[in-house]
Task: structure prediction
Amino acid sequence: SSAEADAVRTCATLPAMAWKAWGATRPEDAFAAVKTQPETLRKAMLQGVAAVDPAKAARLALRLPNAQFAIGAVMGDLARQDTEAALALLPLAVYDGAREPIQRAVVEELAKSDPEEALDLARKAGRIWNDREAETFAAIARHHPEKARELVETMPSSRAKALSSVAVARTLAADDPETALAWTRTSLRGPVRDAALVEIANATGGGDPVAGLGLLAEAGWRETGDLYLIREGQTTDMFGAVATADVAATLLRQWAT
Result:
């Protein structure tokens, strides 16, 4: 029954709730005991500490085994409260895996209030797992879409500009696909424009797969990515959405000619 299912879900969440409460009320004791617990419970304990003292939670996270997994659970709280305190943790982060969530949280927060400073920090941080500059442009576009377009257009031609332009187009498409499409068609060129069109198609094609396929046809098909290596192969599920429609076959024939 639904009542039994609710009870099962409640029981499953009780350990995490208990660790979170313990972290909020007795952080040092909770920290000493949580080291041998599964990762999910470590994160729950840290979130409890962060509800009271985000800086303390972050410092404790860096002392846990596999700190790169734990630190991400609390950095958002600390960055929102004090970006300087968050950045001060970087010297304590021994591995890039632990530095990355600290930098990501601070950049995300700065993107709301000071886009130029966010970009400066991202460029100094360099690439760890993903291209930090492109991710920062995506964050700026979520909060200041016009500023994101302005900043990316002033960049010199480079791979960083290509990646960042596609990131801006993808982010804009989530909230304002018409603006994203108009900007892509007028401001981007070559394989960067094509990659941006694919991103817009993926972002918008769920509601209108026919229009999405049209954008893919406009971009052209690239089996192995492009000279900017923006994506190593471009795939979409939109063909499945219109598999029974004549338009899919029509577009495929157009691509083949």
The CA atoms of residues 51 and 244 lie 51 Å apart. The mean pLDDT is 79. Residues 2-25 form the longest helix (24 residues). The two ends are 57 Å apart (CA to CA).
